[in-house]
Each structure stands twice: as C-alpha cells, then as structure tokens.
Automatic annotation (TrEMBL):
InterPro entries per record: Actin (IPR004000), ATPase_NBD (IPR043129)
Matches recorded under Pfam families: Actin (PF00022)
Taxonomic superkingdom: Eukaryota
Purpose of the protein: Actins are highly conserved proteins that are involved in various types of cell motility and are ubiquitously expressed in all eukaryotic cells.
Protein name: Actin-related protein 10
Species for this entry: Rotaria magnacalcarata
Amino acid sequence: TLVRCCFISPFTRAQIYAENKLTSNESNGSFKEAASIDYPIDEDAMIHIPGIVREFACEALFAQNIDGRSIATLVLDSLLEAPIDFRRQLADNILVIGGTAMMSGFLHRFNAELIHLANLPAYINRLVIKQFRFHSPPAHLNYTAWLGGSMFGALDVLESQSIQRKT
C-alpha cells in the first residue's frame, strides 16, 4: 500500500517543506500539497490518505535522527570506513534493493541526499567524492536479496566456507 499510495519528494521540495514547517505552524499558501486519494482496503471500505501524508510519510528515511544518522549518512560513513583506494569504486557501484526502493522518486532523492551530504564539512575533505552511480538490479527490487541468498546457498562452496555449530 505504501508503494502504491506514497512517493518520495524531490530533494529541493523536501527542503522547502522543512523550512516552511520550521518557520510556521500554519499551512503556507505558497506550498502546494500533493493530491489526497481514497484507497480501497476491502470491498466496502476506503481509507482517505491526505496529500501531505502521501508525500512526506517516508521523510524519516532521509531525516537525520538524534545521532545524526540517515540512510545517506550510513552509506557515506561506510565509504569512509573503506580503504581510501576503494572509495571511488564503491561509490560508482551502489545497488539499492528492497521494497522501499520501489517507491516513486526514491533513487533520485537518495542520490541527491548523498551528493548534498558529501559536500558538507563532515565529509567533503575526507571523502572527496562528487557523484554516485547506481546499478540496476538483475531482478525485481523487492526480491533481489532473496534471489542472491538462494543462489549463494545453492553453491557447492557454501559447505566448505561455512561455520557449523556442534551439537
């Protein structure tokens, strides 16, 4: 339902909304909300989803929590943990999978967040990466991880590379 009804705002629109929210508790007339929809939940029931909920339900993915973490900062921090010689190659080979990645606008916003954060003082001098490249997954986003796990599990090498618990 989330994937069908909700979408991710572009980076600049989310910034404008956040600024308006901080400066005013009232609805700002210059900020046009997305259209509300009625979504059927069974044969005789509908749920009304306001436009503001449809558009900003997933902002928690991009908003930094109390520790200053978001999905974009997790990627950037992971790049900083990698050896310096591998960082550029890793930033050019990002694969985003899972059901959340299926949301309209997710990948575009994720890339914009990475670029924005990479240019902040916390990262700009240590990371020195200006762009990120994303691969298209070999299967549908919501079951790519399962597909990879099942392929790895079917390999003959798995038994020799695994740790077994003795009973």
